[in-house]
Amino acid sequence: MEFFRIHKDIPFMRHALVFNGVSLVTFVAAVFFLFWNGLNLSIEFTGGTLVEVNYAQTADLEKIRNALTKAGNNDTAVQNFGSSHDVLIRLPLKADQPTAKAGEAVMAALDADAPGATLRRVEFVGPQVGRELAENGALALLLVVIGIVVYLAFRFEWRFSVAAIVANLHDVIIILGFFAFFRWEFSLSVLAAVLAVLGYSVNESVVVFDRVRETFKKSRGLTTPQVIDHAITRTISRTIITHGSTQMMVLSMLVFGGETLHNFALALTIGICFGIYSSVLVASPLVMWLGVSRDQFVKPKRKIEGANEDGAVV
Amino acid sequence: MNRYPLWKYVTVVVALLIGFVYTLPNFFGESPAVQVSSVKATLKVDPQTLDRVESTLKAASLTNDGLFLDPVGVKVRFHDADSQLKARDVLEKEFNPDPENAQYVVALNLLSSSPQWLTSLSALPMYLGLDLRGGVHFLLQVDMQGALTKRLDALSADLRGFLRDKNIRHAGITREGERLVVRFRDTETRDRARVALSESQPDLQLTDQGAGDDLKLLATMRPEAIKRIQDFALKQNMTTLHNRINELGVAEPVIQQQGADRIVVQLPGVQDTAKAKDILGRTATLEIRMVDDTPGALEAAQAGQVPFGTELYVERGGKPLLVKKQVMLTGERLTDAQPGFDSQSQEPAVHLTLDSAGARIFKDVTRENVGKRMAILLIEKGKGEVITAPVIRTEIGGGRVQISGRMSSVEANDTALLLRAGSLAAPMEIIEERTIGPSLGADNIKKGFNSTLWGFAAIAVFMASYYLLFGVVSVLSLAANLLFLIALLSLLQATLTLPGIAAIALTLGMAIDANVLINERVREELRNGMTPAAAITAGYERAFGTILDSNVTTLIAGVALLIFGSGPVRGFAVVHCLGILTSLFSSVVVSRSLVNLIYGGRRRLVSLSIGQVWKPKTPTAATTATVK
Description:
The complex is a heterodimer.
Chain A: H1 16-36, E1 40-41, H2 43-46, E2 48-55, H3 61-70, E3 77-81, E4 83-91, H4 102-113, E5 117-125, H5 127-155, H6 158-182, E6 185-186, H7 188-218, H8 224-256, H9 258-281, H10 283-289
Parallel strand pairs in A: 1-6
Antiparallel strand pairs in A: 2-4, 2-5, 3-4
Helix pairs in contact in A: 1-6, 3-4, 5-6, 5-7, 6-7, 6-9, 6-10, 7-8, 7-9, 8-9
Chain B: H1 6-23, H2 25-28, E1 30-38, H3 47-59, E2 67-69, E3 74-77, H4 81-95, E4 104-112, H5 116-120, E5 127-128, H6 130-133, E6 135-142, H7 144-165, E7 173-176, E8 179-184, H8 187-200, E9 204-211, E10 214-221, H9 223-246, E11 254-258, E12 262-268, H10 273-280, E13 285-291, H11 297-302, E14 310-314, E15 320-330, E16 334-341, E17 348-354, H12 356-368, E18 374-380, E19 383-388, E20 400-404, H13 409-421, E21 428-436, H14 438-492, E22 495-496, H15 498-527, H16 532-564, H17 568-599, H18 621-627
Parallel strand pairs in B: 5-22
Antiparallel strand pairs in B: 1-3, 1-4, 2-3, 6-12, 6-21, 7-8, 8-10, 9-10, 11-12, 13-15, 13-18, 14-15, 16-17, 17-20, 18-19
């Protein structure tokens, strides 16, 4: 079986401007929604209490809301979690109730007015923890970016490392943009997924760049766009098969992993799809704009002192 | 050319074998068990306890699947949960006849049911996190500022007493934020005070301030002293938590320091958070009272006629003791208790330090009661326990008290611990709490397992149909990767959480990349007209550089998550990083050795089973024309 029967190198670079334009539009849209809607941060970041309860019968959300309001909890968010029997209740932090008493209060309120609930899980996060997590998340992102830039600059060339990281940060922003647009909950595991995707899709650029370098070294007389086209064409089958395989795994998580892994898998899915696009069609034009050329990879022949113009000596 | 030296095959086989052995315990599951351990440091669980457990169970005609003693306590395995519960009740009755005064913890536990030879190789099943087994997780923040303020307040009282003793007149000592301010009227007194203080209080940094008749001496804590106080506060709080959690009867509680001022408490299997929180937040108090040794009073009390104003207690040795109800001193006045030795007799002793107010009271009490006994009681849940009841030999001033005599150094240690454990050194606050019900834990395991299984199956089917034999080799090496990863997680006893399972799945999904790279490269070399044997070699060699690069970049992300991640992210990062390392080995070395084994021995290799190698037609002028 062979899915990719490509006769000639596909002239990707001819449309470089179009690809970059598409990226720019998605990117700007993502940034816009990030500012307009903001991220729907989970209680891990904002602090607060989360209670998951299970009812033997279909849960009556309205009754639960009323029970909680009656008990003095006004800002609660009550929603189904995975199935109609499971209910997730979110409570914001309260100034007058700083300790972890909220979970018990919820259960007491439910027992009184919406009986039959069994407690599945309670999570309470204090305000200081949330702030720290957000800071640590940002630091982790920074460390990944620096680490990858340094490694690629060391292994290849600064042009490659800049192109790769710009392309992949653009993925990160787009994932965040999706989460902002759909108001999906952004939790710690989503953050983990985002960072994992960052490391993963940099792979993609690495594979293409590896080929670019190899082609530069092997074949003379090709222009830079031709070299890049050749490298992308030669690796495209691998790119799609690999991402397809990873996506199969992620899809399986999306289907079987339940509500807890849902957003994690969702972030990975977006990351993988945009990862293919950006690392191939964004990073490569960037490298081209940054002025990569054959001279950067082929060591110039050593000049021998006293040689004539042809480099001949006796 | 495609042959591995024998040692490489041996390495692969040995690695697979080790991987298999350490993965094995995860398949045996767990059997219900009951664990008996001691609450008190003085009460050791020894082979006699083991015999006692055995005979108790025999008397109740409960059959068990074996019992043994380990550093934690006696553990008994049962066939089913029903006999486990029955045995718990029987043992509870036998070991704690008085439930109000529990000596032992009899807790339900789960033990790996893997055979003995595996356990002796320290091959244990993976350590499941709370989100998979259910339980409570608390993150407690110790109020270090509170600990410091408490210490400074005690110090200011100390300074007052000290300056009075030295006959140095000051115009007042106050605490202003994190420093003490001592006022003086003239420079000469201040100089004297500074000299005296710098000798007696090495922890304080002294600076002069002010002019005229408003002269000040500012005393601040040295950084190393602050660090010591904070360390002490944290350690003491952890000890206290330990003692309290023992009461909950949790089989494997985790109490760990996290960062400079935080304590993590994990109680697997506990569902009643309200009770757990109540116990964690409880305050115990220490009281010093006098012993009533009026002749005949003790005998009357034992006969049921407790004299008015006294209470009957039992000493730790078992002797009855009549203690007056009037409290002389409470634990708030006690700033430290340390085990040590008497400077003259070299007997083990406990050294107590009281603050200055406490020292004054103690001086008065001891002066009036030379020759009598006093009792130090730990009051918890309104119930007292006599820690020690020493005889007062002389008047004791200065706030430094030594309790010695007929004490082993172990006992001195325990007494000091109990004295300190009475109260928390600094207030604590719960800043994070997670409760996971047992059904949710089981659900999470099932979901994680299913997603990995189906994802793996999908990849296997695709790889085998697209790359044929090479695809099967890739799947086998992916399976080897899974084996190594689980073996490594079991061996390191790293905590496996739901994000950890997600990381296993994701790592497998990413690890296939290396094999796809190799297979595509081999196909490409074949397409370029290489012989099959040469194509294998070239494919593996050329792909390796790329595989290494891509794994390093993924690893960078993994390590960043490991450094900055906490909680669920950390669980993800640990597995992710380990998985990248194992995938390097399995996708390159294991798959190559399989390929070599299959193709290396053939003399004349004509074709490879790697699926269709499609060749583009040579681009002649004619074909390019038609393509256009």
